[in-house]
Recover the amino acids of this structure.
C-alpha cells in the first residue's frame, strides 16, 4: 500500500480507536466506524447493540447509516470505511450494499477474539444458502404477492388499505 495512502488513513484510524476508547469508558462495546470520502468524514458511529437493544447496530452499520442520513445514500458510494476492529460478516455485507470501495481496520478478528469478541465463524454463514442456516425459512406465495413489485416497476400506486 502506498505510503501517502497510509498517511492519509492513519488519522482517521486513530479517530476510530479514540471513539472506541471513549465508548468503552462509558460502558460500551469496543468497536467504532468512520466513513470517509475524499478526505471528508461523512459519518461516525460506535457499536450500539446494548444501548439500542438492536443486534444489527454494529459500529460500521451505525456509521454508514449516519453518513447516508446526513449526505444521502449515494454519497457513501466510493467511500472508505474505517473500523477500530475488523468488521464481522454483517458489516462487510452492509459496506458492500452501501458500495463502499475500501475497508481499513486496526484490530483483526483474532485480536478481537482474544478479548471475547469471537465472530470469525460469522464469515462462513454467507457461503451457504440461507435456507440451510439455523433458522426456519418458508416460501409462502399468497394471492397478490407480486402486486407491490409490479406497482413499483410500473410506477403505479395501488389503493392503500
Amino acid at each position: 500500500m502506498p505510503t501517502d495512502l497510509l498517511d492519509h488513513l492513519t488519522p482517521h484510524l486513530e479517530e476510530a480507536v479514540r471513539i472506541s476508547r471513549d465508548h468503552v469508558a462509558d460502558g460500551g462495546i469496543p468497536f467504532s466506524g468512520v466513513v470517509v470520502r475524499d478526505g471528508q468524514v461523512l459519518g461516525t458511529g460506535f457499536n450500539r447493540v446494548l444501548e439500542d437493544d438492536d443486534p444489527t447496530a454494529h459500529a460500521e452499520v451505525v456509521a454508514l447509516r449516519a453518513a447516508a442520513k446526513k449526505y444521502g445514500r449515494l454519497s457513501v458510494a466510493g467511500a472508505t470505511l474505517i473500523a477500530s476492529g475488523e468488521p464481522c460478516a454483517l458489516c462487510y455485507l452492509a459496506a458492500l450494499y452501501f458500495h463502499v470501495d475500501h475497508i481499513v481496520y486496526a484490530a483483526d478478528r483474532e485480536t478481537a477474539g482474544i478479548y471475547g469478541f469471537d465472530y470469525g465463524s460469522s464469515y462462513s454463514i454467507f457461503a451457504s444458502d440461507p435456507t440451510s442456516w439455523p433458522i426456519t425459512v418458508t416460501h409462502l406465495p399468497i394471492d397478490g404477492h407480486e402486486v407491490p413489485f409490479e406497482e413499483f416497476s410500473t410506477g403505479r400506486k395501488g389503493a392503500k388499505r
In short: Residues 22 and 54 are 20 Å apart (CA to CA). Helices lie at 3-25, 49-52, 59-71, 73-76, 89-97, 109-114, 122-125, 147-154. The chain has a mean pLDDT of 91. The longest helix spans residues 3-25.
